[in-house]
C-alpha cells in the first residue's frame, strides 16, 4: 500500500464529535497538520439531522460536568460562530423541583405570568396537568447551526477530505495507516475515530475490544410541525418526564421525542446510507407529542431520523485498543451535540499519550 498523505492527527468522521476534535487539536497544537476524513462530507450523518440543542443538564455529576464544560467551550472558542443562546421553559411536577435544580447547571427560577404566556405561544394547545410547575432557565441553553459547524474545520486550517471512507486501520512502525475505500492511504501517529453509529473500520494489529461492550444502536427522531410559525426568541419547551423537547423556529416547530425503536446486536446498522423518516416514525412521534399537545401532534407532517450509539456504561465515551494513540470516541446516546467539545478534549488527551498505560488497557476509559 502506498502512503498518499500524512498528518500529525487524523480524525475519521466529520460529525459534531470529529469536528470538535479537529478544532480542539488545531487550537492546542497550532503546528500540527490535522486531517478530517469523511465518507461523505462533514455533517452528513446524525449531526446534520440533529435538533442540535445544547442543554446545561445531566442526570449525574459526570455528565453535568461535561455539559457545563461543553457550554464553556462553545461560547469561548471559534465554535461560538455556530451557536446561538436560547432560553427554556421546563414543565415538571411540583415535587420534582429539587431534582430539576440539581440536574441543571444554570440558574432555574419559577416562571412568572409572562413566561407562562410565552409557553402558551411557543406550544399552542399545550396541556398542563394539575400539580405541574413551570420553571425558566434564561441562560445556558444553546442551539448549534450544524451547517456552519461543518464549515469550521476548513476555516481553521484543517485538511478536510470528502468522500473518503476508511475501511481499515493498521499499525505500521509505531504509526497508524488508514486505508480508504478508494485505495488512498493516510499515515499518522494519532487517530481519533468518531464514526458515530456507522460501521466502524476494521482495526488490525490492535488488541480489542475497543467498542464498549453491549453498545446498542437506537433510532433517534424529531417531528416537524411546519404550520407553527415561531420567532427566533421563542423559548424551548421541555417536558423531561415525558421525554419531550419542543424547539420553535422560523421554519416551524421541531419536537424531540423518545423513539421506541432499539436495535441490539452489532454496532453497525449494516448500511452506509442514512435511514428515511417513515410513516412509523411519524406515528410514534405523534403519539408521544399527543400526550402534551394533541393539536400540534395532528399538525405534524414529517421529521428527521438517524441512528445513535448507546453504550451500556454512559461514561464509556472514550475507548480504544491497548495500543495508545488510537481512540474511538462515542458521544452518542442522543446527546452528542451537547457534550462534543468536552468529549473532544478527553479524546485528544488520551490519543496524545505515546504509549499505553493501565487505563488504556481497559476496554472503555471513562473520562470523568
Ligand atoms: C433527530 C435527532 C435529534 C437530535 N437532537 C439532539 C439534540 O438536540 N442535542 C444533542 O446533543 N443531540 C441530539 N441528537 C443526537 C446527536 O445528533 C448525535 O449524538 C451526534 O450528532 C452524533 O455525532 P457523531 O459525530 O458521533 O456522529 P455523526 O454525526 O453520524 O458523524 C459521523 C461521521 O462519520 C462519517 N463516517 C462514518 N464511517 C466512516 C468511515 N468509515 N470513514 C470516514 N467517515 C466515516 C459519517 O459520514 C459521519 O459524517 C439528535 C439526533 C437526531 C437524529
Overall description:
This protein is of the alpha/beta class. The protein folds into two domains: 5-48 and 147-213 and 313-365, 3-Layer(bba) Sandwich (FAD/NAD(P)-binding domain), CATH 3.50.50; 87-139 and 214-310, D-Amino Acid Oxidase, Chain A, domain 2, CATH 3.30.9.10. Helix content is 24%, strand content 29%. It has eight helices and 22 strands. The protein has helices spanning 16-28, 61-76, 97-103, 113-122, 146-155, 279-290, 294-299, 336-351; strands spanning 5-6, 9-12, 34-37, 53-54, 83-93, 109-110, 132-144, 159-161, 166-172, 175-180, 185-188, 191-193, 202-203, 216-225, 236-239, 244-249, 252-257, 262-263, 302-310, 318-319, 326-329, 364-365. The strands form three sheets. Strands 4, 5, 6, 7, 14, 15, 16, 17, 18 and 19 form a ten-stranded mixed β-sheet that branches. A seven-stranded mixed β-sheet has the order 8-3-2-12-21-20-22. The chain has a five-stranded mixed β-sheet with strand order 1-11-10-9-13, with no helix packed on it. A hairpin with a 4-residue loop joins strand 15 (236-239) and strand 16 (244-249). The longest helix has 16 residues, at 61-76. The protein is elongated and about 65 Å long. 49% of the residues are buried. Flavin-adenine dinucleotide binds next to helix 1, strand 14, strand 19 and helix 8.
Amino acid at each position: 500500500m502506498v502512503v498518499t498523505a500524512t498528518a500529525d492527527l487524523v480524525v475519521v468522521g466529520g460529525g459534531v464529535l470529529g469536528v470538535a476534535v479537529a478544532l480542539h487539536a488545531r487550537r492546542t497544537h497550532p503546528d500540527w497538520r490535522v486531517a478530517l476524513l469523511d465518507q461523505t462530507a462533514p455533517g452528513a450523518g446524525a449531526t446534520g439531522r440533529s435538533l442540535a440543542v445544547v442543554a446545561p443538564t445531566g442526570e449525574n455529576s459526570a455528565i453535568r460536568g461535561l455539559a457545563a464544560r461543553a457550554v464553556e467551550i462553545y461560547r469561548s472558542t471559534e465554535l461560538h460562530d455556530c451557536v446561538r443562546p436560547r432560553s427554556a421553559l421546563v414543565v415538571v411536577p411540583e415535587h420534582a423541583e429539587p431534582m430539576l435544580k440539581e440536574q441543571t447547571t444554570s440558574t432555574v427560577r419559577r416562571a412568572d405570568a409572562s413566561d407562562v404566556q410565552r409557553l402558551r405561544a411557543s406550544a399552542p394547545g399545550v396541556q398542563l396537568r394539575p400539580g405541574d410547575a413551570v420553571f425558566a432557565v434564561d441562560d445556558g441553553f444553546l442551539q448549534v447551526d450544524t451547517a456552519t459547524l461543518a464549515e469550521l474545520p476548513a476555516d481553521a486550517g484543517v485538511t478536510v477530505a470528502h468522500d473518503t471512507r476508511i475501511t481499515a486501520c493498521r499499525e505500521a512502525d509505531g504509526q497508524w495507516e488508514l486505508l480508504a475505500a478508494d485505495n488512498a492511504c493516510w499515515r499518522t501517529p494519532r487517530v481519533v475515530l468518531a464514526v458515530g453509529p456507522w460501521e466502524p473500520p476494521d482495526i488490525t494489529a490492535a488488541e480489542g475490544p475497543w467498542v464498549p461492550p453491549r453498545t446498542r444502536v437506537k433510532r433517534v427522531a424529531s417531528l416537524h410541525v411546519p404550520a407553527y410559525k415561531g420567532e427566533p426568541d421563542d423559548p424551548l419547551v421541555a417536558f423531561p418526564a415525558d421525554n419531550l423537547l419542543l424547539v420553535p423556529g422560523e421554519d416551524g416547530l421541531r419536537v424531540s421525542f423518545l423513539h421506541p425503536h432499539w436495535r441490539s446486536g452489532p454496532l453497525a446498522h449494516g448500511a452506509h446510507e442514512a435511514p428515511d423518516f417513515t410513516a412509523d416514525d411519524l406515528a410514534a412521534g405523534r403519539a408521544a407529542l399527543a400526550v402534551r399537545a394533541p393539536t400540534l401532534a395532528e399538525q405534524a407532517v414529517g421529521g428527521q431520523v438517524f441512528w445513535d450509539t448507546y453504550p451500556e456504561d454512559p461514561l464509556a465515551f472514550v475507548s480504544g485498543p491497548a495500543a495508545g494513540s488510537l481512540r474511538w470516541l462515542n458521544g452518542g446516546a442522543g446527546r452528542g451535540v451537547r457534550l462534543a467539545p468536552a468529549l473532544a478534549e478527553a479524546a485528544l488527551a488520551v490519543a496524545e499519550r505515546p504509549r499505553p498505560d493501565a487505563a488504556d488497557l481497559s476496554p472503555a476509559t471513562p473520562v470523568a
